[in-house]
């Protein structure tokens, strides 16, 4: 058992196969280009697949993640030298006030506890330049995704580059948007890489209030990566919030 749900090297090696470059990555890249961002911070960058794709001439890219396993993998990937990798959480983000864009993809913001959220958003705001944007996604609690995360619904077996893998999830606790689940990954040798993850499902109102308290404004929320309008049953919130120009 590991405290870090991304702490098993074999699973980290499979992460990009299971979470390939897609419409979400295209959204964040288009936003970076739209903002003409010359400095981008990726909070909770994980394996850095998206992070590395931001890199281009005249742009500084920084990836921050507390998982040593994820970051060690990121550092070894092609193009990794174009990114500055920082081991840590939001407290490690330089309060430089010059980033054009801070992003947090793959529902990373849902890993932040309610107690930590204000501090994280203050750090994000401190990194941004006036007019800079923070963008991230978070699941809508109203869609109750965790109800699909039981053992029967998630049990599967598949062949992977590291051999046959049997996997399933078990929800351990649901309490006011705080969902604790266990993920099992049984490899061919019989070992089970089991981890416990806590995710925080927050309403759009709660996230909006937290962003505003951190001094961010012009908050927009869409229900998907192609500016789909929000409804009561939308599964996803895609947020943008801007640091005001004084
Ligand atoms: C689902 S992965 C997403 C990785 C990547 N952003 C992506 O889009 O594929 C969640 C990431 O959040 C990181 N994480 C967990 N807690 C965090 C925290 N408090 N601050 C920043 N990142 C965190 C994990 O280490 C992991 O790499």
Short description:
This protein is α/β, with parallel strands linked by helices and 246 residues long.
Topology order in helix (H) and strand (E) letters? HHEHEHEEHEHEEEEHEE
- Give the tally of structural domains: 2
Please state how the strands of the largest beta sheet are arranged side by side. Answer: 3-2-1-4-5-11-10
Q: Identify the CATH homologous superfamily of the largest domain.
A: Vaccinia Virus protein VP39
Radius of gyration using CA atoms only: 18 Å
Any overview of this molecule?
Helix content is 25%, strand content 33%. The mean pLDDT is 96. The protein has 7 helices and 11 strands. Bound molecules: S-adenosylmethionine. S-adenosylmethionine (SAM) is lined by residues 6, 19, 43-46, 50, 65-67, 70, 89-90, 105-108, 111-112.
């Amino acid at each position: 058992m590991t405290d870090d749900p991304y702490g098993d090297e074999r699973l980290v090696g499979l992460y990009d196969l299971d979470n390939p470059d897609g419409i979400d990555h295209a959204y964040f890249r288009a936003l970076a280009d739209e903002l003409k961002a010359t400095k981008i911070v990726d909070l909770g960058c994980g394996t850095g697949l998206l992070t590395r794709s931001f890199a281009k001439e005249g742009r500084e890219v920084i990836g921050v993640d507390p998982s040593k396993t994820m970051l060690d993998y990121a550092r070894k990937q092609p193009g990794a030298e174009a990114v500055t990798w920082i081991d840590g959480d939001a407290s490690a983000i330089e309060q430089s006030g010059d980033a054009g864009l801070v992003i947090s993809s793959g529902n990373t913001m849902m890993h932040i506890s309610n107690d930590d959220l204000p501090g994280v958003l203050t750090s994000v705001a401190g990194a941004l330049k006036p007019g800079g944007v923070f963008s991230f996604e978070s699941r809508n609690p109203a869609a109750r995704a965790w109800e699909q995360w039981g053992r029967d619904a998630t049990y599967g077996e598949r062949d992977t580059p590291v051999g046959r893998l049997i996997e399933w999830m078990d929800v351990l606790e649901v309490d006011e948007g705080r969902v604790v689940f266990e993920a099992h990954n049984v490899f061919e040798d019989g070992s089970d890489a089991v981890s416990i993850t806590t995710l925080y499902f927050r309403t759009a109102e709660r996230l909006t209030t937290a962003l505003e308290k951190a001094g961010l404004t012009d908050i927009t929320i869409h229900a998907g990566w192609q500016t789909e309008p929000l409804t009561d049953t939308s599964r996803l919130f895609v947020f943008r919030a801007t640091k005001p120009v004084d």
